[in-house]
Specification:
The chain is mainly alpha-helical and 215 residues long. The chain has 10 helices and 4 strands, in the order H-E-E-H-H-H-H-H-H-E-E-H-H-H. Among the domains are: 53 residues, no CATH class; 86 residues, no CATH class. The longest helix has 31 residues.
């Protein structure tokens, strides 16, 4: 994670900040800008029996409000799925035209794409620690290529915690990389994993780096 002070996080409107220093319980993780709470401490507190009881009581008292809230969220989800389905159908029916337009746009804006590529490479280099084993990262990209070839479905290597996240910034290290379909990666974009997958999601670690990481 990239070091960012509470003041910097406040100025940027971020929910979390990260100092790299452990909390009183020894957790080295992000903290909430609003109250300085350690994210791991808060998770452990939420898993305590008494906390679960209070939460269950609150849910019963606010059952109607929760039902209305999730109903609205469901409407948003269904609408978004319909839009994605329309986009997929349109792309399938107009693939060649869209590719031709993209090629034309690229040729007319080469300087812009070159500048973007340069910024991306600089950001990737900045996010790659000097001690990381590059061959381990290359193995994951090679695995991505084989998976795309064997399945016929385009796959991407995604940073589980994005390099330029809204709350914290991940690193370009093997244990922050996952292989997902191109469609899932484009949908995920620059979102934090808890925002895209949900709060209890766990990334499936890539096996390629295990030996080098453990020495």
């Amino acid at each position: 994670m990239q070091i960012i002070t509470k003041q910097e996080a406040k100025e940027k409107g971020l929910r979390h900040y990260f100092t790299g220093k452990p909390c009183k319980r020894g957790h080295v993780c992000s903290r909430y800008t609003s109250n300085n709470s350690c994210a791991d401490c808060l998770q452990l507190r939420n898993e305590m029996p008494e906390t679960k009881k209070r939460l269950e009581k609150w849910r019963k008292q606010n059952k109607k409000k929760l039902s209305e809230y999730f109903k609205e969220r469901r409407k948003d989800y269904v609408w978004a799925e319909k839009q994605r389905a329309k986009c997929r159908k349109y792309y399938k029916e107009n693939k060649q035209t869209m590719l031709a337009n993209m090629r034309k746009h690229y040729l007319e804006n080469k300087d812009m794409y070159a500048a973007y590529s340069s910024r991306s490479k600089k950001q990737m280099k900045k996010a790659t620690p000097k001690w990381v084993v590059i061959k381990d990262i290359q193995k994951i990209y090679a695995l991505r290529n084989r998976l795309s070839q064997n399945t016929g479905i385009e796959h991407h290597v995604d940073h589980y915690y994005p390099l330029q996240g809204k709350t914290i910034c991940g690193l370009n290290v093997p244990w922050n990389l996952q292989i997902i379909t191109a469609e899932e990666n484009l949908a995920k974009g620059n979102k934090m994993p808890e925002d895209f997958y949900g709060p209890n999601h766990t990334m499936i670690q890539m096996p390629a780096y295990t030996k080098s990481q453990t020495g």
